[in-house]
Amino acid sequence: MRTAAWLYLILAFGFIYLPVGALVLFSFQDGTLPVPPFNGPSLKWYAEVLSDGDVTDALLHSLLVATGSSAVAVLLGFLAAYGLARHVLPGSAVMRVMLIAPLTVSYLIVGLGLLIVLNRIGVGLSLMTAGIGHVVINLPLAFAIIYASMGAQHENAERAARDLGASEAKVVILVTAPMLAPAIAAAFFLSVTLSWDEFIIAFLLTRFDITLPVEIWSMLRSGLSPRLNAIGSVVFLISVTAVLLLEFTVLRRRRS
Amino acid sequence: MTASVRLDALNHWFASFHALRDISLEIEAGEYVTLLGPSGCGKTTLLSVLGGFIEPTQGTVRIGDADMTYVPPAKRPTTTMFQDYALFPHMSLRDNVAFGLRMAGIARNERHRKADEKLDLVGLKADSAKRPHELSGGQRQRVALARALAVEPEVLLLDEPLGALDLKLRRAMQDELKDIQRQVGTTFVHVTHDQEEAMAISDRIVVMNTGRIEDAGPPLRIYREPASLFAADFMGEMNHIPARVSSDGAQTLLATVPAANLPSGEATLCIRPEALRQDGSGIALGEATVRDATFFGTHTRAHVIPVAAPDMVLVAHLPPTRLPETGAVIQLSVLPDDIRMFTKETA
Prior knowledge:
The structure holds two protein chains of two kinds.
Chain A: H1 2-26, H2 44-50, H3 53-86, H4 92-100, H5 107-120, H6 127-148, H7 152-163, H8 168-179, H9 181-196, H10 200-205, H11 212-220, H12 226-255
Helix pairs in contact in A: 1-12, 2-12, 3-6, 3-9, 3-11, 5-6, 6-9, 7-8, 9-12
Chain B: E1 5-14, E2 17-27, E3 32-36, H1 43-51, E4 58-63, E5 66-67, E6 78-81, H2 93-103, H3 108-121, H4 137-150, E7 155-159, H5 167-184, E8 187-192, H6 195-201, E9 204-209, E10 212-217, H7 219-224, H8 229-234, E11 239-246, E12 249-251, E13 256-257, E14 265-271, E15 283-295, E16 300-306, E17 314-318, E18 329-334, E19 339-343
Parallel strand pairs in B: 3-8, 3-9, 6-7, 7-8
Antiparallel strand pairs in B: 1-2, 1-4, 4-5, 9-10, 11-12, 11-14, 12-13, 14-19, 15-16, 15-18, 16-17
Helix pairs in contact in B: 2-3, 2-4, 3-4
């Protein structure tokens, strides 16, 4: 029974991590094809990738879009959550559902819809438009996470702050937001990781400046190469960093 | 700072629920007043009206000389100490206590000095850099008190402040609260459902029930001469003896007692357990059989059955020196001053 359990565990994790492991392993391939047998290790593909201006530009663009769109999504999500959690509004249930509903719409539909609208109103495609698309997909998530953590104990602290003479703006800035810092940070880091490797919307809504997933896609058209493995490893490393940051800063503190 | 409070003809409805009914009350500056009553009696609603968290449907709230009925909490000379303390978890104790001063625009050094002063008052000066989660319940409670007092309110409102503490700590904090109130001189309005706490701490108790004030007065008067049957029962254990009032007095199965000022008809005669005596002084209530008795340290609490009324069970607090045996027969009597009588309300 015990052996079976261990076997299951190994199989499950193998299924999840073997592809990533293979990707990372063959990024160190000393040859032109990322397939067995493994020769190496060699860092030449990393050197090539990091000296490729298109790739590093795309990487910076991705970081910019990810952090910028996440900041906007978290700010809007927080304000929506505060409004709906703390005030009695007409149709607040409908508003809540409408805020979360975009989660169920496929990225392709969101991207196409925005593309049509932007074309109609004559806004040129850029990193900004891709960022807008990412706000659309991350806002529901940010709203849901922050709204769920706005409990009654926070409300009492807000009441106490008001009682001690704080204006509404001061209540939000000095009491509500700091108390919700863990949820706000969680929403932010999650949004960053989702935006960071999002492809379809970024593909549809960018033109000259492109994000990394779009760059990778265009490189893929010329066939497999350990370069792609090297880029993939870098992307993976950055995602892992974001997740670890989340784990160590936010989730750990909440436990204490 | 301190100010008087004057409530006039307050009525409040939550939808169709009549939560406050014709509340009129005057509180003197520097007085310690307790609002006492069971859950749902309206005491917390009344406190919220005082604090500005609820605007009453009708009536006025005056604090000092100013009409405060529609003034928001931030602009009132009141602060509230909340039941769950509502401390700011992300701030040190010093910043918690200094928060109100910060909102008032007082410079950092000055507000830190004042905050330390208030922390000293509640005995937590050494912990001013700690966060609330590092404290015990009793300590958090003190921080909440220091924070509420730091802005030097004219009236401090306390919403069941001792509700979450264990009994021993509760009794200790009662003494401390009263002591601090004497030092600062602020008017305190304290909500509780614990009549012992109310008696221990207040200059005046306001007993509330179903949104109404049943009785208001000093603890001794409310305990010994309650204005209503509800107040009599809420302040402590009470024996009820059915009586019939006529021109001869109030007749019961045990004795007939003088009943001046009461209209003829059904009435209830109330005697506290500790007022039942065995020494024969006062009005004789006849013999009674002891059903059971328990030792309480300061007294023995006995259930006794009067021989003249076998369906009645009375609770008597007897001297602790001897535990009466089951079945023992004792003579009961009561001093006329220890009897309260209420006309039976026609249901």
